[in-house]
Amino acid sequence: MHYREGEFEASDEGMPDDAPSPLAEQWPYLRFLGLSAWWAWIWLCYFSTTLVGAFPDEERPFLVLVMYLISTLSIGAVMLVAAIFRRRATQLVDSRGPIVFAGVVAAFATAALAYSGSIGGEVPFVLAAVLTGACTGALCLKVGRLYGTVNLSDSLTAGAMSLVVAALLFFVGLGIPRAWAVPYTAIMPLLSALLLCLPHNDPYDGADQAASGGLGAERGVMALYGRLVGAAAAVAMTAGVARGIASSSQASEGYIHEGAVIIALIGLTGVALVWLVNRMAARRKGARIAYLVLMIAGIALMLGTCFGVPISYLSIGKETLWLVLSCLMAFMAFRFGFSSVRAFALGQAAYYLASTAGWGIGALIAPYYGDATVRMAVGAVMAFAVVLILTLLFTERDIKAILLAPVGRLGGEGETARPGTAAASLSGAATPLSEAEASVGTASPSSSTAAAPADVPGAREAQLGERYGLSLREIEIMDLFAQGRSANWIADALFISKNTVRSHLRAIYTKLDVHTRQELLDRLNSQNQE
Asked: DSSP secondary structure string, 64-105?
């Protein structure tokens, strides 16, 4: 068959700018690995002397410490500002341009850190440290926003895989000549930004959480969130004490050696977390067991410091616990429908500011840490503090409550979520969370059995079900999807696979002859008016 020139004209007009690439379509979780480049940047900056190699040996640990303190405070400041100006911060984080710009600025600032000695000394060094902290803080917010779109098992798996990939990136940075190591380190935040911003269109995504309110959840849920943030701050403070002691007394020649051992052990821990989370995913025990094991291992390490284990090794627990606690923060926003930016930002602000405060305490202790009695006292006190966190402040049962607490309809700003769903009452299914409420006591038992209003939400869905031949499960899923829940959220709430939910949604679209969520809502509204 032959075609005349000009017979067919191709045009890209109307094509979406954010259409997913084939890479993003084949590996949808690739963007979650943006966390790995972010982590690799942090480790190359703070667990090696790559960026301060041009300075005298005796100054390197001190300069790494200064860089750590300034950038940590900058990250904390960014998180506080984002929590206060939630809506604006969400708009910026959801836009590709600002995030890529933050990655570019962080890359140039990282290079400026390395060469600050030859371009002016202390002032450029401090300014570059502030910029790297602020810009990588923006990337951290993007991580929270992204990880707040999936269930806890998915986010922990992606995060643990990021640990492993970050460890590999770290050792590549250690093994190449310094002339290449500096630009290699500098490119990490940009790589993180590009991965985090990979376009990914999901036809069954949820409603925008930015419009769902700040943290307007039930009192029991907010108590859980408060304990989670408190645990993150307490863990960060104990790790900060260890870092303050180690940074004030560590020799330059042992810095890289200990850093390499720490990162290798973190990478192995990431492998173990991937196995554990997926081994226990069916019964939702992975996160709970991982938290328990990591806390017990942290206690053992702290007690080990009394008998010669380097206190800097506590960074292993700090990094891996940061992952678990951060994924829990993102998951709470995912599950209870409040702003992922605010939930993540408040938690991270508490974490980083507590870490800095802990460093100050550690720096005060450092001159006396060589004494065996002081060393044993510090190890015992920190171990006791972690025991209190594990048994009183935030326990394994609290994670169970987060996973199982009842969730109602998606409310607006300041609206309290109603427990139970209409679909559950239509199908006669019991809510799976009353058991968790009773066992943990995060909400009153009566709240899960409160009578529904006379105009039961979901009645229109039942009528549509009769008209179009929808099953009870399809009615249940349609009700939740119409509320603004994503396919990922529905799968997590109903204890079924994401593919099952998507198959049901495709069937619903076909039976109702609609193609988008808005068309579905219009059909439901027209049914309600009839």
From this structure: HHHHHHHHHHHHHHHHHHHHHTHHHHHHHHHSHHHHHHHHHH
Identify the CA nearest to 403 among candidates 526, 287, 230.
287
CA nearest to 512, candidates 464, 466, 456: 464
What's the CATH fold of domain 458-530?
A: Arc Repressor Mutant, subunit A (1.10.10)
The predicted pLDDT at position 445 comes to 34
**Taking each helix axis from N to C terminus, what angle separates 372-388 and 286-304, rounded to the nearest 10 degrees?**
160
pLDDT score of 162 more than 90: yes
Residue 178, pLDDT > 50, answer yes
User: Which of 360, 378, 453 has its CA nearest to residue 408?
Assistant: 453
379: exposed, middle or buried (Cβ count in 10 Å: 0-12, 13-18, 19+):
buried
Q: Give the count of beta carbons closer than 10 Å to the beta carbon of residue 397.
A: 14
Q: Which of 362, 337, 437, 440 is nearest to 396 (CA)?
A: 440
Write out pLDDT tens, residues 305-337: 998 888 889 989 989 999 999 999 999 999 888
CA 275 to chain centre: 19
CA distance 134 to 102: 8
CATH for the stretch 28-199+217-404: 1.20.1250.20
Rg (CA), the chain: 25
Q: Please, are residues 486 and 204 in contact by the beta-carbon 8 Å criterion? A: yes
> CATH 1.20.1250.20 spans which residues of the chain?
28-199+217-404
**pLDDT, tens digit, for every residue of 120-136?**
567 778 888 899 999 99
Query: Where do you find CATH 1.10.10.10 in the chain?
Result: 458-530
Are 319 and 163 in contact, with CB atoms under 8 Å apart? yes
Q: What is the DSSP string of 422-465?
A: HHHHHHTPPPTTHHHHHHH-SS-GGGGGPPPPSS-TTHHHHHHH
What is the number of alpha carbons within 13 Å of residue 301 lying toward its C-beta? 21
